[in-house]
Amino acid sequence: MSQSSPANCPSHAAAAPWVYSDLVKDHFLSPRNFLMGDESAYRYDAVGTVGNPICGDQMRMFLQIQDGRITDVKWKTYGCASAIASTSALSELVKGQTLDDALKVGPEQIATYLGGLPKHKFHCSVLGHEALAAAIADYRSRTH
Questions:
Q1: Phi, psi torsion values for 31, nearest 5 degrees
Q2: Smallest Cα–Cα separation from 130: which of 57, 39, 31?
Q3: For the chain, N or C: smaller number of CB within 10 Å?
Q4: Which residues are catalytic?
Q5: What is the mean pLDDT of residues 117-130?
Q6: CB 130 within 8 A of CB 110
């Protein structure tokens, strides 16, 4: 049985070049704060889980919080390059922020930080923001 890869697959032979910025590519290939392994091994104060039925992406975001600030962020996702890069960037942008300030880091700021996303992939930055908001809501429901 022969192995197939995008490079030798006839449908990908004339594939378009990478359409994302170098920063998107960097965050996709080397995602920051990605949670490897078993979730139960990571101590977290809050978790948010969201999914997008349109594209099938799913995401979980885990937060460590101390004195009202996000001290660490970990995440897992089942998604495309844009979803992975957007969540990686978001995890870097919100570390050290207060919960209220972190909620202000929206999809537009994520996309701008990454040097832009194709219009049909903008929803990926929305998904990361929604996972963050769900995790913060989870934390607030536990502490109030």
A1: -65, 140
A2: 57
A3: N
A4: 55, 124
A5: 71
A6: no
